[in-house]
Amino acid sequence: MEIPEKLIQILASAKRVVVLTGAGISAESGIKTFRDPDGLWSKFNPAELASMDGFMSNPELVWDWYQHRRDIINNSLPNPGHYAIAEMQDLFDNFTLVTQNVDRLHQRAGSKDVLELHGNIIDNYCIKCRHPYEDFIDSNVKEMPKCRQCGGLIRPAVVWFGEMLPEEVLINAERASKISDVFFTIGTSAEVYPAANLPMIAKSSGALVIEINPNLTSISHYLDYSFRIQSGIALPLIVEAIKTYRNKI
Ligand code: OAD
Questions:
Q1: Which of 7, 19, 88, 240 has the lowest CB atom count within 10 Å?
Q2: Which member of 82, 118, 131, 221 is catalytic?
Q3: How far is the CA of 25 from the centre of ligand 1 (A)?
Q4: Could you confirm whether 118 is annotated as catalytic?
């Protein structure tokens, strides 16, 4: 991967940097994306498995699917892309990581204060009284837990289709995008809103926007740089290039 010298210079002097990630950042950890040809939505129906209506019509099926996904995540490790992003938080005065992922691999790689737009798959809460369910959940146990307060069904703390994103998280992500000098959109198809708006908010507010994705997306041609490469390869090279440049000057 060739990183233009001009881009390295801009990155090395950037002060406010935002990184937006999607499922692609975790692809090299062995976690399937959603919209790639072998992605989750090619085999599973999001209306059935990622909506409140789907959960209410067949809670066991939905719970079972999330248990299966938890099992995969528990047995996966962060990859060089996650670690490079964790390193980026110390390279810039102001750094914000926004993710659509629910797998918590960023945090496992050392990223802090991650803005999780779509919640996470580790936590759970009651659908009736919304009380958090904090007992340990073994991803190998089939039986669905019940709320200790009211006996209601327990669901994963992910955002499903038709649900609002956590308001404060979204406000903070939009604010950071608006004031960023540099914005990275990494491993996301940019098909799901409002997350897909963030690169456009950054671009229209004057940020330099860089995409890292092995495939073209619907926003690729609006952006300043679009690298057709896996994030686990590109990000360590970018971090290294910034450090080398700064050490030279
Ligand atoms: P998608 O599955 O829509 O897109 C994944 C993107 O990652 C694609 O553009 C791939 O080309 C790219 N990709 C694949 N391997 C990669 C790699 N090694 N490095 C970099 N990029 C790679 O996933 P998202 O955009 O994250 O929402 O999807 C957004 C939301 O749609 C998800 O959060 C989920 C889903 O429905 C909910 O469940 C609410």
A1: 240
A2: 118
A3: 8
A4: yes
Structure tokens at 11: 């990155």
Nearest CA to ligand 1 atom 21: 187
User: To which residue do tokens 């629910």 refer?
Assistant: 102
Q: What is the pLDDT of residues 146-197, one digit of tens each?
A: 999 999 999 999 999 999 999 999 999 999 999 999 999 999 999 999 999 9
Q: How confident is the model at residue 102 (pLDDT cuts 50, 70, 90)?
A: very high
Contact 90, 72 (CB under 8 A): no
Please report which confidence band the pLDDT of residue 140 belongs to, taking 50, 70 and 90 as the band edges: confident
188 Cα: distance to centroid of ligand 1 (angstroms) = 4
Say if pTM beats, i.e. exceeds, 0.90. Answer: yes
Q: Could you tell me if the CB of 35 is within 6 A of ligand 1? A: yes
Retrieve residue 146's tokens: 């019940």
Give me the count of residues in the chain. Answer: 249
Name every residue whose Cβ is closer than 8 Å to that of residue 127 and which is 6 or more positions away in sequence: 52, 55, 152, 153, 154, 155
